[in-house]
């Protein structure tokens, strides 16, 4: 929840820019939550401020906090105008820099949206193959399947008759908890497993089923599929998202460099890098 809240709260500098450019926006017919002078915060404004991926996770309290922040920022902004802070040269310079930074970042953001979707699986596999030694596990991991049953008799029945190939059939018939298909099960850190189950994992060899473990909800049976020790190399599927991020960032960097090179040719530009104290080259390329 804290991460959502941190993303949801607006940076004061960005908020000032949004107020600065608000004169260009059309008036909305949405109900008004707050009005201060001619400035208004509508219901539509409030919901537009929420990133779509968090829309169903924002609490009423967070919405109220946003409104309070809007009020505080608007009041302070109006006071700054009254005091003519916006007329001071250094404030105008900072606003202009903020405007440039915002618009420059937007050019990059809009040109980079498709990068993660344009990375082919072969590129991910090639990167993994060439850099396996960079992806070392920092924890003991385990891949296991679990069945929970009501009584000890049923637990021992499964223990005696189940195996890697038919474990899912017993799970579907007897388990009190949802069962993960072997194709979807992922490695988990051993330290994150409850203590009583952790002991069973440590005592059971891969390919075997643990002895029944009693808990408040019944008797647990664990099929240990594989143990992945600390210091071993992660599998490609474990680090796929990490590799995707790396390749996307690399592609974005290359795209930005091409874009900047093209923009240099389109704009009237001159530079004298040798005027910088301690710099021995007048080339932009060598100084990137």
What does this protein structure show overall?
With 288 residues, this protein is an alpha+beta fold. It has three domains: 2-93, no CATH class; 116-130 and 236-275; 137-228, Chitinase A, domain 3 (Roll). The chain is 48% helix and 12% strand. The protein contains eleven helices and six strands. The protein has helices at 2-8, 12-20, 43-48, 60-82, 89-112, 115-118, 121-130, 152-161, 167-174, 195-203, 240-266; strands at 32-36, 39-42, 141-149, 188-189, 213-215, 218-228. It has a four-stranded antiparallel sheet with strand order 4-3-6-5. α7 crosses α11 (240-266). It is flat, with a radius of gyration of 29 Å. Residues 1-25 have low confidence and may be disordered.
List keywords for this structure.
288 residues; alpha+beta; Chitinase A, domain 3; four-stranded antiparallel sheet; two-stranded antiparallel ribbon; 48% helix
The sequence of SSEs as H and E is HHEEHHHHHEHHEHEEH
Number of beta strands: 6
Shape field: flat
Output the number of helix runs: 11
Report the sheet-strand fraction.
Answer: 5-15%
- Average pLDDT figure: 85
Oligomer: single chain
- Number of separate structural domains: 3
Helix content: 40-55%
- Secondary-structure-based class equals alpha+beta
Cα(first) to Cα(last) distance is 39 Å
Strand adjacency order, main sheet? 4-3-6-5
Sheet bearing the most strands, described?
4 strands, antiparallel
Catalogue the unreliable spans: 1-25
Give me the Rg, rounded.
Answer: 29 Å
Topology at a glance:
Layout: H1 2-8, H2 12-20, E1 32-36, E2 39-42, H3 43-48, H4 60-82, H5 89-112, H6 115-118, H7 121-130, E3 141-149, H8 152-161, H9 167-174, E4 188-189, H10 195-203, E5 213-215, E6 218-228, H11 240-266
Antiparallel strand pairs: 1-2, 3-4, 3-6, 5-6
């Amino acid at each position: 929840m804290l991460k959502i809240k941190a993303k949801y709260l607006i940076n004061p500098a960005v908020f000032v820019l949004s107020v600065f450019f608000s004169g260009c926006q059309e008036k909305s017919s949405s109900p008004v939550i707050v009005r201060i002078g001619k400035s208004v915060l509508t219901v539509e404004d409030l919901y537009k401020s929420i990133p779509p991926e968090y829309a169903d996770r924002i609490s009423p309290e967070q919405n109220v906090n946003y409104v309070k922040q809007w009020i505080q920022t608007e009041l302070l902004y109006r006071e700054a105008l009254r005091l003519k802070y916006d007329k001071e040269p250094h404030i105008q310079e900072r606003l202009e820099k903020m405007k440039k930074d915002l618009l420059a970042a937007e050019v990059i953001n809009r040109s980079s949206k498709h990068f993660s979707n344009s990375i082919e699986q072969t590129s991910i596999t090639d990167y993994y193959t060439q850099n396996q030694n960079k992806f070392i596990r920092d924890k003991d991991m385990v891949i296991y399947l679990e069945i929970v049953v009501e009584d000890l008799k049923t637990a021992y029945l499964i223990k005696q008759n189940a195996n890697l190939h038919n474990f899912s059939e017993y799970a579907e018939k007897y388990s009190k908890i949802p069962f993960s298909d072997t194709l979807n099960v992922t490695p988990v850190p051993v330290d994150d497993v409850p203590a009583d189950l952790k002991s069973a994992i440590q005592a059971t060899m891969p390919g075997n089923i643990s002895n029944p473990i009693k808990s408040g909800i019944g008797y647990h049976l664990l099929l240990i599929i594989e143990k992945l020790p600390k210091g071993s190399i992660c599998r490609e599927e474990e680090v796929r998202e990490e590799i995707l991020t790396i390749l996307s960032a690399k592609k974005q960097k290359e795209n930005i460099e091409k874009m900047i090179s093209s923009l240099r040719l389109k704009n009237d530009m001159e530079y004298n890098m040798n005027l910088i104290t301690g710099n021995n080259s007048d080339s932009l390329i060598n100084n990137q």
